[in-house]
Amino acid sequence: MAALVVPPLRPDVRPARRAVLPRALQQAPHDRRVDHAGRLPRRELPGRVRGRALSMKERKRRPSGEASREHILETALRLFREKGFDGTTMRDIAATAGLSLGAAYYWFPSKEALVLAYYARQQDTHAEASRAALASLPDLRSRLGAVMHAKIDMLKDDRKLLRAILRSTLGADEPISVFSEETSAVRRQSIDIFLETIKADESIPEDARPLLAQMLWTLHLGLLLYFVNDTSEDLGKTRALVDGSLDLVCNLAPLLASPMLAPTREQITSLLSDAGLFAAKK
């Protein structure tokens, strides 16, 4: 019987190698379309938008670096306002921004990451505006009013956007929830502003301040929920609700700060801590 002869491989033929995606693309969400070889469709390759190659002139006009990040964020927020959070995809955002899908995922791995970036930016802006106002206000009532109204002033043009993402902010398992682990840093920063606001009032004992700051933050969430749906002229009803609520808080603050209520304060703090809801610094 004749021996089986296996012809040698031609020196110019090499085994096909599987495409290796950049790390940012490997970590992209599962809805991305990647073929069996790990390749992106041609229209999603860098330098191509909607299936066509960009000209050199177009590429020069495209933002780069940190400018790209801000451009993507602004584009996403605009689409969230127009189409809603659920109705907008990362593909929509990349196409509208004039960037490849890979570039969008490089800066933001998901839509939720875009919302988290928006939260952080707004919190930084609010903290800066609040601290500037607090420097010249001596009494607790005026200081609290400055902090609360600064938040309203800052967000008054974003109410449609906030309504668009509101449905995804209630469950703690949602990344953009106000109670999620992903928003914990922004949550603590927001509570810290209220803590700074009441520190100047020596009538409030030090052990009562963290709980009062937590309560003020919770109050401000309720006020914002009303604010995003307020249809009154110049947000008059929201402004009145803020002022009335703060008047009540300032009237009740001495009672909350009473030494007789120290055990009650500790009990409330412990209850909130056990539930994972207490974020103020003790």
The helix/strand order is HEEHHHHHHHHHHH
The helix-and-strand class reads mainly alpha
The CATH topology of the largest domain is: Tetracycline Repressor, domain 2
Strand neighbour order, sheet with most strands: 1-2
Number of strands: 2
Q: What would CATH call the architecture of the largest domain?
A: Orthogonal Bundle
Question: CATH superfamily name of the largest domain?
Answer: Tetracycline Repressor, domain 2
Give the C-alpha Rg: 26 Å
Give the uncertain stretches in residue-range form: 18-54, 56-61
Which term fits the overall shape? Answer: elongated
Largest sheet: 2 strands, antiparallel
What's the pLDDT, averaged over the residues?
Answer: 81
Description:
With 282 residues, this protein is mostly helical. It folds into 2 domains: 65-107, Arc Repressor Mutant, subunit A, CATH 1.10.10.60; 112-273, Tetracycline Repressor, domain 2 (Orthogonal Bundle). 57% of the residues lie in helices and 1% in strands. It is built from 12 helices and 2 strands; from the N terminus they run αββααααααααααα. The protein has helices at residues 23-26, 56-61, 66-83, 90-97, 101-107, 111-134, 140-155, 159-166, 184-199, 209-227, 236-256, 262-274; strands at 48-49, 52-53. Strands 1-2 form a two-stranded antiparallel sheet. Strand 1 (48-49) and strand 2 (52-53) form a beta hairpin. It starts with 22 loop residues before the first helix and ends in an 8-residue tail after the last helix.
